[in-house]
Each structure stands twice: as structure tokens, then as C-alpha cells.
From TrEMBL:
Protein name: Protein kinase domain-containing protein
Lineage: superkingdom: Eukaryota
A GO cellular-component term linked to this record: autophagosome
Any one GO biological process: autophagosome assembly
Organism this protein belongs to: Aegilops tauschii subsp. strangulata (Goatgrass)
Entry keyword annotation includes Lyase: no
């Protein structure tokens, strides 16, 4: 589950991804740890930033940069014109941002294995953050 919250030290809006450790198997747990490691090590405007992690006995909370535009699919449905198509200039800008983020990942020898509209977040300034199964 993902919640919207306020980061107490900075006052910034953040997304908090809650993971119940009891409900994930070892394979999923390894993937989560890998995602944490990757997001924690990268710094790029087109890659979602991991701000903090909070661990309790049963829960793991990932505090992530908040993108208020929802995922790219929701953005397309909200801002798309006829037949829910984004304007060409917007699609071109998103594609450029996606390519820049993927280039950074490739430079780190990381493959994003879940490229789909729901795996990308759009921000108010048409910022695109990469998320998903890295």
C-alpha cells in the first residue's frame, strides 16, 4: 500500500510505501531489498528518489519522493485529448525523460524489467520518475 504523507524534517510531501514483511516470500523480499539499494544509490531528476526507510518488526516503510500527477496511465486518461492521446509534444518530452532515466540505469548495469505506463510517475511539472521492478 502507498500513502501520501509529510516528511517531518523537511515538510515536503512524500509517498510512503508500506510493506508487510509477513506477507512477502523470500523472492519478493530480495526484490524489495534490491529496489531499496538501487533507488538509494541513484540520484537523477528522472529517477524516483528514495528519501528514507523505516523498519519495524513486521513492517517496512519506504519514504519516496512524491509525484502528484499519478502514474503515466492515469495522467494520460486525465490529460489526454481525443481518444485519451497525449499531445505529441508531451509524449515526446516524456519519452526523452524516460530515455534519460534508462540511460542512467544502463550506465549502472541495471535493467528495468517492468516498462509499462503504470510503472512511471508523472509530477506536476511533467517530471517523469522511473519506478517499478528494477
Amino acid at each position: 500500500e502507498v500513502f501520501r504523507a509529510v516528511h517531518a524534517p523537511t515538510g515536503a510531501r512524500v509517498a510512503v510505501k508500506e510493506i508487510d514483511r509477513r506477507r512477502v516470500d523470500d523472492h519478493v523480499r530480495r526484490g524489495i531489498l534490491q529496489e531499496m539499494s538501487i533507488l538509494g544509490s541513484l540520484s537523477h531528476p528522472n529517477i524516483l528518489r528514495l528519501i528514507n526507510t523505516i523498519e519495524t518488526g513486521e513492517k517496512l516503510f519506504l519514504v519516496l519522493e512524491y509525484c502528484d500527477g499519478g502514474d503515466l496511465e492515469a495522467y494520460r486518461q486525465t490529460h489526454g485529448g481525443p481518444r485519451n492521446r497525449l499531445p505529441e509534444a508531451t509524449a515526446r518530452d516524456f519519452t526523452r525523460q524516460l530515455a534519460e532515466g534508462l540511460k542512467v540505469l544502463r550506465g549502472e548495469r541495471i535493467v528495468h524489467r517492468d516498462l509499462k505506463p503504470q510503472a512511471f510517475l508523472a509530477g506536476i511539472c511533467r517530471y517523469l520518475g522511473l519506478i517499478g521492478d528494477l
